[in-house]
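Listing S7. Sequence submitted for prediction.
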Amino acid sequence: MHARGPLPFDPIEEARRQWVVHGWGEVAPAMAVVTSIMRLQQVYLSRADAALRPLGLTFARYEVLMLLSFSRVGALPLGKVGQRLQVNPASVTNAIDRLEANGLVERRPNPSDGRGTLARITAAGRHLAAVATDRMNAEVFADVGAGHDDLERLFTLLGELRSAAGDFPAAATGTSTGPEAT
């Protein structure tokens, strides 16, 4: 999403060409991939924010609502929210504060840990999560510019890259849905 419209050329391809010209050809493909991923993150985040903004949500808050809605009991300890979303405690607190102020989530004492706090999704939060998911599916996920088989291959490759970068253990890659959200 650009303020001035699409460029007449691919600036990342040009950067890759320049990497080669300057003697860094060995790492030029990796530079181009990393830069492309970072650019796509900006593009997709912009699309997600445009879809969610009318609902008063950001992508970060949408992720919290979805995580809580997928959990068995609709509630998780704040620390587990941060672990599952791979964000720092301050980001979790900020998202929960905003969701709580809008009546979408409530904090509760953790019955299994007297010091801990649970975030619990409310009925209004579940409803908004469903509406937001319909919008995300239609406006962001339905057409990202590649077909189903290419997306499956890309997801697998990106999982391998994330694992190699230390995001999660290599044994955790594959088609499993991961641990059940408790």
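Caption to Listing S7: primary sequence and predicted structure tokens for the chain studied. The mean pLDDT is 92. The two ends are 37 Å apart (CA to CA).
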